[in-house]
Every structure is written in structure tokens, then in C-alpha cells.
Write a structure and sequence with these properties.
Elements: E1 2-8, H1 14-27, E2 34-40, E3 46-48, H2 51-59, E4 75-77, H3 82-85, E5 87-89, E6 92-94, E7 98-102, H4 112-120, H5 129-136, H6 138-147, E8 155-159, H7 166-179, E9 184-188, E10 198-200, H8 203-214, E11 219-224, E12 228-237, E13 252-261, H9 268-273, E14 278-281, H10 288-304, E15 309-318, E16 324-330, H11 340-347, H12 352-371
Parallel strand pairs: 1-2, 1-7
Antiparallel strand pairs: 2-3, 4-5, 5-6, 8-11, 9-10, 9-11, 12-13, 12-15, 13-14, 15-16
């Protein structure tokens, strides 16, 4: 089987994608699969990478995949090209059986690449267009989850247009203070890895945090800062089409594990730059009732957004009240050496290589199921 691993991307999480893709490249069984690397630059151009790039990172455990630009190897994507013609370089078709889009954040995890691959008529791992786009928008995710009866962190949404009226802006600041109270978290609605996220202790900090968040998105969230433990579950499968015939489609919840940050909160530096930024406790030290509740909520949330392939579902467990809140859903969670998603799966009997095979199998099953649906009356 020919697997195309796509990485990099036009995103604030470009460097994280390089690290995740490196881990995947090292763990895909190249005796059973042929691996093709396609790197996307920060400007959004796609380039087929030379085989030597794969050999380099598999040979050197300290190496990280890079995106090498070569005009002669620029990739074109052909609508309806399918597995034999969706990708081409210089007029030469590049056969691919399935794509793993190891892309985080905007222009990769938000449904854009998923839509392109749908148009190209090629199987891909992970969530489809709707679930990817929905989960990327933290406000819309909350709306769907609330409708499904799943508790979320209390919040307020502000749009850039609200800044046009000083009176409206003042109203929103007052509403945030009255309904949520300090301290508060401010974050972009559609950004990952805690980009643009800030904790505000008072009104002065809140104003600065709002301006910072608007550098990343045109819509932001103000959330109540809860003194909570951070728990995470991994989920795989496809609850929409699962009929019991294929194990890869069964919805399976792994965990929860616990993030114990050494920073003020689990920010970008704690996640990716500081090797001691957090302790990962697998499994989380919670009682059986709490564990069962969180796993049930993770599965319900996965179904609510029509997820498929994989997600990491993040929760807050209030240290005082014991209340559980679903914080967010990540449709392409980190696959780095210190990432929670693969670690939770491995702890419950699905090692990295087997996990990647599972995702590829689910991708092909979902592709087959959707292509059996009618698209016209002819």
C-alpha cells in the first residue's frame, strides 16, 4: 500500500506538524507500506520530498522532517484524480492509496485539506470535512455539545465587529465580569496549541488578552478560568457507519490520562518547548465512577460532531466541586514523542505502529462507504 504523509502547512502549528509527522514516519511499517512524503511550506505550496528525507529521519533519532522546496517537484492536486491520479509532479502521476494528513491547526485540521482530498477522490485518515471544521471552531463546538447535553466551560464569544462600537465592547466586558468573573481565559476560536491564549486576572489584563487573541482569529472566546485537573481521552472509530463488521470502525475510548503542567497553564511552551513542561499521568488517578463518566462523555462528544478516525477529547475536572467540563476536541492531536494521544492508545494495547494501521484501515472503510452513496439521479 502506498501511504502519502502530508505535513508542514500554512499554520501557526507548522513546526508541530513536522514533529508529529516525523514520529509517524518512523513508526509506519515500511516493509508493508511504501511511504511518500509531501511537505507543505508556510506559504501553502506542496512539494514531493526526496526519499533521502525519509531515510534521514529514520536513520537519525534526533532528526526532524523538513520541507524542501524544489520547483521541479511541486505537487498538483487533480479533482477526481483518485488513487492513481490525484497527485502529480511535472505531469507525472504519483499513485497514492491513502493519505495521512499530519497537519495541525488552520489550513489542515479545519476541513480545508479534507475538502480538497474529498474533491480529489482519495481516502484519508482522520475526521471528515464537517467534523474537522466544527471542532476547529471552539464556539460552534460548544453549541453542538450543549445541544447534546454535554457540559462545557461557561463562556462568552466576541467577534471583531464588536470592536467597532465602544458601547458594545464595554457591554461585553461588563457581561464577562458579571457572568464569568476573574480570572478568565481568552483564546481565539480557531487556533490550536494554545496560540493566542492568555489568562487574564483583571480588566487591564483582559483588554490586552482580547487584542492578542484577535491577532489570531476574527472571533474569540472568553472563558471562566476553572481551578481544575486536565484530563484527556483518545478516541478512534467511525460511529456513523460502524455495523460491527470491521473492528477499525468501532468507537473505542482510551484513558483518561492527566496533564499536570508545571507552567501557569498548559501553554505552547509547556506543550512543545519545555521537556519538563508537564507530567503525563497514564492512567489518570481518578475513581472508577469519574473514569466511566469521562469516557462516556468522550464517546458522546465524538458522535455529536460526527467524528471519524481519531480525536483527542479534553476535559476539566473542577478541584473544588468535582464537576466535569468538556474543554475542546482535537481532530488531529499531536503525535510527538510526548503526546498524550498515542501514549493513551499504547497504554491500552495499541502501540504506535498498530495505531497508524488502524487509522489507515478506517480511512479506507469510510471512503468505500461514502463512495457507495448516490451522488446523482443517473
Amino acid at each position: 500500500m502506498i501511504i502519502a504523509l502530508i505535513y508542514g502547512g500554512k499554520s501557526g502549528e507548522h513546526e508541530i506538524s513536522l514533529i508529529s509527522a516525523t514520529a509517524m514516519a518512523r513508526n509506519i511499517d515500511t516493509t508493508a507500506h511504501q511511504l511518500t512524503l509531501i511537505g507543505i511550506t508556510k506559504t501553502g505550496r506542496w512539494y514531493l520530498q526526496d526519499f533521502s528525507e525519509l531515510a534521514r529521519v529514520r536513520r537519525d533519532p534526533a532528526a526532524t522532517l523538513q520541507v524542501h522546496e524544489d520547483a521541479a517537484r511541486e505537487v498538483s492536486v487533480v479533482p477526481a484524480g483518485g488513487t492513481t491520479g490525484a497527485f502529480s509532479v511535472g505531469g507525472t502521476r504519483i499513485p497514492v492509496d491513502v493519505v495521512i494528513p499530519a497537519l495541525h491547526g488552520t489550513f489542515g485540521e479545519d476541513g480545508t485539506v479534507q475538502g480538497l482530498l474529498e474533491m480529489a477522490d482519495i481516502p484519508y485518515a482522520g475526521c471528515g470535512v464537517t467534523a474537522s471544521a466544527l471542532a476547529m471552531d471552539k464556539e460552534k463546538t460548544k453549541v453542538v455539545l450543549q445541544n447534546a447535553g454535554i457540559p462545557v466551560v461557561p463562556y462568552l464569544c466576541i467577534r471583531r465587529s464588536d470592536l467597532a462600537s465602544s458601547a458594545r465592547y464595554d457591554e461585553l466586558l461588563e457581561e464577562a465580569q458579571q457572568k464569568l468573573g476573574f480570572p478568565l481565559f481568552v483564546k481565539p476560536c480557531a487556533a490550536g496549541s494554545s496560540d493566542g491564549a492568555t489568562r487574564a486576572e483583571d480588566l487591564r489584563h483582559l483588554n490586552g488578552a482580547i487584542l492578542e487573541a484577535f491577532d489570531w482569529d476574527d472571533k474569540i472566546l472568553i472563558e471562566k478560568a476553572i481551578d481544575a485537573r486536565e484530563l484527556e481521552c483518545s478516541v478512534t472509530g467511525n460511529p456513523t457507519t460502524a455495523d460491527g463488521a470491521h473492528a477499525a470502525e468501532a468507537t473505542v475510548v482510551y484513558g483518561p490520562g492527566e496533564i499536570n503542567p508545571t507552567h501557569e497553564f498548559y501553554d505552547y511552551d509547556a506543550k512543545y518547548n519545555d521537556p519538563n513542561g508537564a507530567d503525563l499521568l497514564i492512567p489518570a488517578h481518578v475513581d472508577d465512577t469519574t473514569r466511566a463518566t469521562i469516557r462516556d462523555l468522550a464517546a458522546r462528544a465524538y458522535r455529536a460532531i460526527d467524528a471519524s478516525g481519531l480525536c483527542r477529547v479534553d476535559f476539566f475536572l473542577d478541584k473544588t466541586s468535582g464537576s466535569i467540563y468538556l474543554n475542546e476536541i482535537n481532530t488531529m492531536p499531536g503525535f510527538t514523542a510526548i503526546s498524550m494521544f498515542p501514549k493513551l492508545c499504547e497504554h491500552e494495547g495499541v502501540p504506535f505502529g498498530k495505531l497508524l494501521d488502524l487509522l489507515v484501515q478506517e480511512a479506507q472503510l469510510r471512503f468505500k462507504a461514502t463512495r457507495n452513496l448516490k451522488t446523482s439521479r443517473d
